[in-house]
Structures are given as structure tokens and as C-alpha cells.
Amino acid sequence: MRALNQIAIGTRLWISHGLLLVLLIAIGAYGAGVAARLAGDMERTAQVNLVRIAQAQQLEGQVQLIARAARDLLLLDAANQIKKQNAAIDQAQTDSEKALSDLQAAAADSAEQA
């Protein structure tokens, strides 16, 4: 403390402002690094989750298609319309099985990366 009293006031002010400037630069650099890392994490999360959401929506659409076709089967009485609905159900089941396997593969890949 006695050493600081020996230094002139102008020099002490320059030293204090210099220390404040160094601290400000250090805090800014740390904040920029954290922001860059956070942006990378958000981008990675968004890409993975958006793919999963799209696959889940595709699967949901196929399930809804099967439900509508099954409901229509109960209401129809013409043979050709019933065959058409059965074909739609078969196609939707095939597509939903593919969508489900894609979704499970994406989940397995993300579990391996974690």
C-alpha cells in the first residue's frame, strides 16, 4: 500500500485505467468464445432435431393415412373401392415401416455420438 502512495496520482490513474482495459478485453474475449461455442452447439442440435422431427411427422402422416383408409373400408361397399383402400393401406404400412426404421437409425446414431 505504501508503494502506491509513492506513485504520482497521474501514474496511478493510468495504471488503474490500463488494468480496467485489460479486464474488459479479457471478459470480452471470454464472452465471444462462449457465444461461439453456444452457437455451434445450437446449430448441431437444430440440425439433428429437425431431421428427427421431419421423420416423425412423415411417420405420423402415414399412420393418419392408414387410419383414414381403415375407416373408409368400413364405409365402402364396392369391391374396387375396397381393393383401392387395401392397396393404400399396404403402401402406407410399407412407407411407415421405412420411416420408423429411419427414425430408429437416427436415434441410434445420436445415442452412439453421445
- Percent of residues in helical segments? over 70%
The portion of residues forming beta strands comes to under 5%
Give the rounded overall mean pLDDT: 86
Question: N-to-C SSE series?
Answer: HHH
Indicate the radius of gyration in whole angstroms: 32 Å
Described by strand count, sense and barrel closure, the largest sheet is: none
- Annotation, overall tally of beta strands: 0
Spatial shape: rod-shaped
Structural class: mainly alpha
Low-confidence stretches: none
How many helical stretches?
3
Distance between the termini: 53 Å
Question: Could you walk me through the main structural features you see in this protein, from its secondary elements to its overall organization?
Answer:
By secondary structure, this protein is mainly alpha-helical. The protein has a domain at 35-113. It contains 3 helices and no strands. The protein has helices at residues 2-6, 9-75, 79-113. The chain starts with a helix and ends with a helix.
Give a short synopsis of this structure.
The chain has 114 residues and is mainly alpha-helical.
Write the layout of secondary structure elements.
Layout: H1 2-6, H2 9-75, H3 79-113
Helix pairs in contact: 2-3
Characteristics:
rod-shaped; 0% strand; single chain; mainly alpha; 3 helices; 114 residues; 94% helix
